[in-house]
Amino acid sequence: MNLSSGYPFPLIKTGLPYDFEKLEKNISTNVVILGGGISGALAAYYLVNAGIECVLTDSRTIGLGSTCASTSLLQYEIDTPLSELKDKVGIKNAVRAYRLCADSIDKLKTIADKIKFTDFEYKNSLYYAAHKKDISFLRTEFAIRNENGFGVSFLTEAGLNRKFGITASAAILSEQGAATNAYDFTHALHQHTKKKGLRIFDRTRVKTVRRHKNSFELETETGWIIKAKKIIYATGYEALKEIDKKIADLHSTYASISEQQNHHTNFWKDDVLIWNTARPYLYMRTTTDKRILVGGRDEAFYDPAKRDALIKRKSALLTGDFNRLFPGIPFKPEFNWAGTFASTKDGLPYIGQYKKLPGRYFALGFGGNGITFSQVAAEIIRDEITGKKNKDGSIFSFDR
């Protein structure tokens, strides 16, 4: 699948920092992980640290799927508001899903520190009303989050304008959030796990999977065989072809990043993550090298040619969106890109085994929380493979 296009800034900035081999011999392992982006990297991290022998393969050069196009906002809020998610999955599961995402931000920070990855910043998150009619919704959403122990405060129009210089009817300010660089984080994880025994092969496309009684044979397009006891699919949207039911819809999304500003430049208060109640929503954040990243303007289709033809127009629209919110802050886009994302009926990912495919595990962190969902998936799948009961697995199961 063609998952991204244009000039994704993480790829422009870092390029291809490391070389990986292409598989050119038959090998065997305990677990093979398909997909070398952030989902596969986190799965490998957890399994290797649990003492499980792993091989990771990617059909592309490492990181050149959805990961290099990620805008890398880390939020516990998922695409379905908590006040709506409770009606879809029940209040207990809804709150738990939100809590897992909140906790995953801290867990990702712990991992980053352990592997000495520094491009990770805690930030508050500001969720503002795109329209005046959204005030009632925001009050309801604030109440349910507050009742369930999430660190939030409610801002009126006057308070929002006074504190952040934003003209909007209301907002929720959340204490838990962060920003990172998913592409660089992925490479840092791979370098760490390689030292601990992970074997990584890119440009290695698996063509056929044959199941035996207690094992698998995966044949690459060049005829090499990988023998494994378990398979983890961390290929994101490309894994949908393995599932014989529709679990997600593919969409196109857009992002623009500004020219770099001088190091002393200040943008908005505390450089909070910003997003709004519009559907699709607008979002923005700053970067460690003094740029502003704006994203959104999603389209409900997957068509690479049609998607890519809209990049220039979408960049102009995102620039206008930013200028209306912050007329006093210059925003001159330097790099623009498009990507693919998937949405599910309840906004939650699909994690774990699919009953019709025993021995195969899926880490499908769909939606706007792909990185935090990937961390949650890595823990659940590690537990399932090691025979440990994970109490949260049912929340994200295929038969929920």
Brief characterization of the structure:
With about 400 residues, the chain is an alpha/beta fold. It has helices spanning about 10-15, 40-50, 80-90, 90-115, 135-145, 155-165, 180-195, 305-310, 310-325, 370-385, and strands at about 5, 25-30, 30-35, 55, 75, 120, 125-130, 150-155, 170-175, 175-180, 200, 205-210, 215-220, 225-230, 230-235, 250-260, 275, 285, 290-300, 335-345, 350-355, 360-365.
Write the layout of secondary structure elements.
Elements: E1 4-6, H1 9-14, E2 27-28, E3 31-34, H2 38-49, E4 54-57, E5 73-75, H3 82-89, H4 91-114, E6 120-122, E7 125-128, H5 135-147, E8 152-156, H6 157-164, E9 170-174, E10 177-180, H7 182-195, E11 199-201, E12 206-211, E13 216-220, E14 225-228, E15 230-233, E16 249-258, E17 273-276, E18 283-286, E19 292-299, H8 304-309, H9 311-325, E20 333-343, E21 350-353, E22 360-364, H10 370-385
Parallel strand pairs: 2-14, 3-4, 3-15, 4-11, 7-17, 15-22
Antiparallel strand pairs: 1-20, 5-10, 6-10, 7-9, 8-9, 12-13, 13-14, 16-19, 16-20, 17-18, 18-19, 21-22
Question: What would you note in describing this structure?
Answer:
The protein has 400 residues and is of the alpha/beta class. It has two domains: 4-69 and 183-246 and 347-396, FAD/NAD(P)-binding domain, CATH 3.50.50.60; 123-177 and 248-343, D-Amino Acid Oxidase, Chain A, domain 2 (2-Layer Sandwich). Helices cover 30% and strands 26% of the residues. The strands form four sheets. It has a nine-stranded mixed sheet, with helices on both faces. A six-stranded mixed sheet has the order 11-4-3-15-22-21, covered by helices on one side. The protein has a four-stranded mixed sheet with strand order 2-14-13-12, with no helix packed on it. A hairpin with a 4-residue loop joins strand 13 (216-220) and strand 14. Helix 2 packs parallel to helix 10 and helix 4 packs across helix 10. The longest helix has 24 residues, at 91-114. The protein starts with a strand and ends in a 15-residue tail after the last helix. 50% of the residues are buried. The model has no long low-confidence stretch (mean pLDDT 95).
